[in-house]
Design brief:
The protein is of the alpha/beta class and 255 residues long. It is built from nine helices and ten strands. It has helices at residues 6-12, 41-55, 90-111, 128-132, 159-167, 169-178, 184-189, 199-213, 218-253; strands at 17-22, 25-30, 37-39, 62-66, 73-76, 116-120, 135-139, 143-144, 182-183, 195-197. A six-stranded mixed sheet has the order 1-2-4-6-7-10. Strands 3-5 form a two-stranded parallel ribbon. The model has no long low-confidence stretch (mean pLDDT 93).
Length: 255
Amino acid sequence: MSRPRFEDYREKYAPYFKMERRNGILQVQMHTAGGPVIYGLPIHNAWSQLWLDLGNDPDNEVLIFGGTGDKWIAGFDPEMSTQPLHELPADAFYDQIYMDATKLLEAFIFNIDIPTISCINGSGLHTEFALLCDITLCAEHAELFDPHFKFNLVPGDGQGLTFQELMGPKRAAYFLYTSDKIDARMAKEVGLVNEVVPLDRLLPRAWEIAEKIMQKPRAIRRMTSAILRRQWKQRLVQDLGFHVAHELLGMHLNK
């Protein structure tokens, strides 16, 4: 059976992601109309589909993932407010919300078997993808946060889970209840990110690390990534469905 071709899926996902690949290193940047991402259900769905195609292309050897401009995610698509999510028909709610919310994280961890490097290029929601990567770089001006509780929502979509795993339960509980922002310096101190660099050095630094990784044999790279990803696999199996289900139940109870 044929595998996905880079030229095909680069075009397929062009409305949501900019991609380039050199010598096995694949750089993927989220965008909306060429600028910072505006979050909505279409990109929520596209994430999990992208991970499946990237992971099934054997020519991808290292992934660099980030946003565009100086923001990770710049805001919400206004169309999301036209119909409250909990008012969607049951099947649509299951497919567009529950399934996507779980599969976009599961597909990232279970289907991508190569080293991953993320570049948090600014503030915004859904930095869980960046935190799930093997190595996480962060721009100096970026801030991480989970605003769910602030808006009467259960923090169950994955951001809180990554906070718990990386910061520990006590620190995570504080930031999930308060929705306080974590600046780049603190993010490094508490173990959320590995390096803090100026924005204009973010992608070049990621490429430096990726090229260093590429100097090692292919099998060694991939088996090392399997070891590093194992803890995330265990955490997702144990907790992700529980977290997502409680968030969605909270939406219905808070009508």
